[in-house]
Amino acid sequence: MSNSLSILSSTIVKQSQKSLISKLNNNNITYRTSFPSSSFSSSIHTSSTSFQIKNNNNNFTNNISYINNNNNNKSIFKLFNNNGINNNNNNRFYSVHTTPTNTPIEKKTTILDIKKKFESNIPITMVTAYDYCSAKEVDNAGIDMLLVGDSLGMVVLGEKGTSNVTMEQMIHHCKAAMKGVKRTFVVGDLPFGSFETSTRDAVANAFRLMKEGGVDAVKLEGGKKHAATIAAIVNAGMPVIGHIGLTPQSVSALGGFRLQGKTSEQAMSILEDALALQEAGCSAIVIEMVPEIVATQITKQLSIPTIGIGAGNGTSGQVLVYHDMLGLYSDFLPKFCKQYATLSKTIQDGLKEYKRETEQRQFPTQAHSFTMKQEESQMFIEKLNILNNHNQEESSTASNNKQNIDSLFSHFSNPNNINQSVKELMEREKAMETLTFVKDKKSNNNNNNKSTPLLTSIEQAKLNIVPDKKNKKKIAVIGAGAMGSFFSAKIASKEIADVWMVSAWKEHVEKINRDGLTFYNLKGEKEKIKSIRATLDAKEIIKDGYPDIVFVLVKSPATKQASLTASTIVAGNPNAIILTLQNGVGNREEIEQTITEKGYKNRVWQGVTSNGCYVVEPGIVRHTGSGPTYLAASPSIVSKSDYGMENRQDSKEEREALESLKDILINVGIESQVSNDIDALIWGKVVANAAINPLSAVLGVQNGYLINNEYPKSLMKKIVGEGMEVCRAKGIKLPYGDDTEQGFKYVTDIAQRTSSNYSSMLVDVIRGQPTEIKSINGVIVKEGERLDVNVSYNKMIMEMVLNRHPSLSSSSSSRSKSVQHL
Description:
Shape: elongated
Largest sheet: 8 strands, parallel, barrel
Radius of gyration: 38 Å
Number of strands: 26
Distance between the termini: 74 Å
Strand order of the largest sheet: 6-7-8-9-10-11-12-13
């Protein structure tokens, strides 16, 4: 039987009645049939033929239904037994879809096909859909027209209306829908604001929708006032579908989503609109939400199709929204929409069942899972056991270290201590507010919003930091805390350079030299990096040559010492670049001053990084948060408009070197960008740190406490406001804008994301170590007083941090964590 049907399916579409009967005879099939007298239909409609066959070997009789649909050129054979039940003989349901090689390619519906259907008085079907999946279903259902409507604003994007939809959004959805159709005629909506301003804009945007979106025609809303615009688009060679009655883009002017044409005068006006659009060249017109009699009479007056929606049954066709008619959009169901399905309930039931099965571990079953060979799985478990044993040893050490620092935090986290600290803050604030702050402007502040940069000598040799496989670059990292360890690990992991670390942390240095640096990435994957060389003595770095790049990654109180170290290891290479990625303001200037005083000509670059990490214990660093690293060259190559000087002759060379360094970082997996406004990024971070770090240090709390309690939250806002005012006075445009509320929201968002973290400043206070307060709040105070800006809250919190002497700081004999949150 299977062979008989195979032969039948491959030939029936090209056989006449006579040859088809002959073929059935040749395959031992007894038939009883009645064919139409004419050839199979070649029009847009479907022809079907039914006949009976009997397999002489298997002794059963079946009914075969043959359907030839020239719309999609699919020939369908359905086999049923005498009782009308699918024949499951041989476990197969015979539904054969074939496209013989001599069958024409599936025909795309054109505007002429729509016109022919209209002239044949056969109602036209249109559905509004917005994406690939829904468009594919519309196409498979044989719907004549698909409208990618700007109603996607409400249905897909969740807007309250359609007026916010942009050309880019329409193009995006049109492209998606076009990929789902093979036959259906697709129309794209011109969104609000894309055609009203001028005829030229209308034509240009219509071209965009057809060229970029790929649609077959465009639709625009409005009556006779847009007739000239429609004519211009049509004259440019593009089919246009009009839209009258209720026009959603003008719903505000129409008083809401209301029935239009309720009076004879209004009805005549809509008729005038229709006639004007026909005269302008519209291929069809959508009529929305008008009385049935009005739409019917307008249709009779026109010689082009009308597509109704909420306009009764007298139009040339109908359009409904995919989500409405299938019960997918539950927010609102218009009166004119019939729901042909209630998929929302079906979807909800499916999702709830998925949730239930997942939570009860009933899904996935073995049927939905994959296996591996038994010997491979055994080897995997053995390797995992070895790894777990090693990790348990590391975790035990890390746990002890965590307990040490948590015990220190617990002293500050005690509610009585926090309340006492809050009381102290309130008293300091009250005392501060009773004072009158008088600030004298410095004579040189009148015209200077930015400090004059320290210029380096222009007589420098050619920069060369591009990686070279034959001659590896040498990179030195000053500071082996969290960020120093992170950058060292990432760069060394790719082996594109010889990496040295210099630090005073003896245990960390010894562990790296003995066992390598263990690095855990964001996924928790472990990598052991043994190519890093660490030292306590910077002079050891230069025994085999001077570095090409030096990263400075110490906390700002150690900048002076780090700058002396940097000057030592670049002394023999005037082309070496020094890059600081430290928190706060003034670090680059201090390093550059030291380098210059030593008589060296090395360039000092500055950057800002948003990566987060911490040292779990000596020799182990964990990456906890990823973000971009921004790089900027020394200010001596900035434009004349910034500092009133001409560009240096070697600025191009330096910018190229900067791009090379950016590429190095990207190559090792550190997202990097070159910035032309590093001041904005540095000060943006300073303002955020100024509001979070010192308050957490004074109160001894996690970051989340600051935003979950009104009093510290109010102080944060005042500190942010002062910092932003200083930036405004300096002419610095912050990344989060000029509005204080926006700046405060940006800072509170950071505190929210790091709510369980203890700030690095609190860690320093607990350990009795110098903090970065002077390079954060201190620079806000310094610049504020210079520019006659009130910075009293920043000054108050800075003084309180400087006066902190925790009784437990001396008990912190070992370094348990190097924290870097912001």
